[in-house]
């Protein structure tokens, strides 16, 4: 590269000094012919290293060197090539330019082929990685599906066993109720039965939900209240106003709370007739459950202590909410808690 750059800088100076035949012949011998052989040497070296387009440079510069030698012989009056070939120099340089263009086109073609080959390899690598990623995703998806299926089976089996155990407990309690004559014992057993029954109904509704049946709060509350009504011979009207469906994780606690409050109203609020209003709504993330009866009201100390303890525990510990009881005219129990989306 250094020698070629030196020739590039010296060539204009040499051309300016070639104003007569003597200097021109001297320049050809001392400058251009060595340059030609040097270029030929580079061409052969490149050709030996596998550069295919170097053959075009070798052939082209061979024409130029032969032309320069013949021109030098003509100017020195040894041999006049123009007698046989008048345009030897023009032909030589035109051939060199043509072969240089062919070499350049050949090089461009090789570069394009290498580019296409590189693109093909890159595409193949991308496809391979894509297939490997696809196989990995399919494998992980299969593993996750298997794990999810196993978890689903275990979950259903657990629900089934819990429900069966609850039903067995209910059957034992009913058997005990039928075998006892003490009225107080029967009442306590019925209260316990209703508490367990409220949990059982939730499991039934959860099972329906798994089968893609619509799931909401109202039918669960209706089943709980109906279970309580069956234990009392009173004409009580139940009014529901449910504008919010409680989250499943809170619904079982609400069912137990409702069971205690409705049972208390049936036992203490009415002699024969009456109304119970059950309301649930949500406002700005706060859920409000209100159970109101039109009975005679009561003193909170007369409220079954176990039932009150159960309600307070569920409200404060499970729902993390607050409870307010107004028993001056009838009884209104309001429970509030936060329920995020």
Overall pLDDT:
76
For this structure, the quaternary state is single chain
The number of helical elements comes to 8
Percent strand equals 5-15%
Distance between the termini: 75 Å
**SS elements, strand count:** 5
Fraction in helix: 55-70%
Radius of gyration: 52 Å
Domain module count: 2
Low-confidence stretches: 1-26
Short précis:
This protein is α+β, with helices and mostly antiparallel strands and 341 residues long.
Describe the structure.
With 341 residues, the chain is of the alpha+beta class. The protein has two domains: 1-179; 180-338, Heat Shock Protein 90. The protein has helices at 2-17, 21-48, 54-75, 88-179, 183-210, 217-229, 248-269, 305-318; strands at 235-242, 273-283, 286-293, 322-326, 331-338. It has a five-stranded mixed beta sheet, covered by helices on one side. Helix 1 (2-17) packs antiparallel against helix 2 (21-48), helix 2 (21-48) packs antiparallel against helix 3 (54-75) and helix 5 packs antiparallel against helix 7. The chain starts with a helix and ends with a strand.
